[in-house]
Design a protein that fits this description.
It is built from eight helices and 14 strands. The longest helix has 12 residues.
């Protein structure tokens, strides 16, 4: 069974994840939002080889350290190709939030809906889940956990007022991709605490308001 470690980085309190596959030898670093030294320390503590560097989506707070971590790990970034425009505008995003510039990462491989990658004895399965951004993906880990970026939070959902966000598309992503996963699946969010599909089905204001809880 895979292990999932979390550390909070960036001015936006972003959750960065280290997923260690069954067998404890191979790992994936997901959403390297900032603080490359902190991320490197997490990897060293786990004593694993990072096989994949992944962004659930390409907003600044999820890719701020991606270029540096790609160098340190000698890996290319995996991300949704429809978010390339966010990388092209990363300088504008930094200026908008009054933050120093970050190095623009390059997408080495674009994610595809249904794509699977192996991690030791574990499997990562990628599902396209646009709405918060057009290139957002969620990542199912051995079908027991799902790392959702900013698609869904405990008690809330991702913003849709950012460039190319769309509320109806986000609603459909939650309905079609996350809720069918099963109530016991643990949801690891881009910000804040983890939750479960079942908890959000019953208690999430937006899911209830949208009539998706039946």
């Amino acid at each position: 069974m895979a292990k999932i470690y979390t550390t909070e980085v960036s001015e936006f309190c972003t959750n960065s994840y280290l997923v260690v596959g069954e067998g404890d030898a191979e790992a994936a670093l997901i959403d390297p939002g900032d603080a490359p030294d902190t991320l490197t320390a997490m990897i060293r503590k786990a004593d694993v080889e990072v096989k994949y560097l992944i962004a659930t989506h390409c907003h600044l707070d999820h890719i701020g350290a991606a270029a540096e971590m790609a160098r340190r790990l000698d890996l290319g970034l995996l991300a949704g190709g429809d978010d390339q425009f966010l990388l092209d505008r990363v300088d504008e995003s930094c200026a908008m939030f009054g933050l120093p510039p970050v190095e623009k990462p390059e997408i080495a491989r674009t994610l595809d809906d249904g794509m699977e990658l192996t991690l030791g004895g574990s499997t990562l399965r990628f599902r396209s889940a646009p709405g918060h951004s057009p290139g957002s993906f969620v990542i199912f880990v051995d079908e027991k956990d799902v790392i959702v970026g900013d698609v869904l939070f405990q008690g809330s959902v991702g913003r849709t007022d950012l460039p190319m966000g769309d509320a109806e598309t986000l609603k459909n992503s939650i309905r079609d991709v996350i809720l069918p996963a099963g109530d016991d699946v643990v949801v690891h969010t881009g910000h804040g605490p983890s939750t479960t599909v079942g908890r959000e089905r019953l208690n999430n204001f937006f899911i209830v308001q949208w009539g998706l809880n039946s």
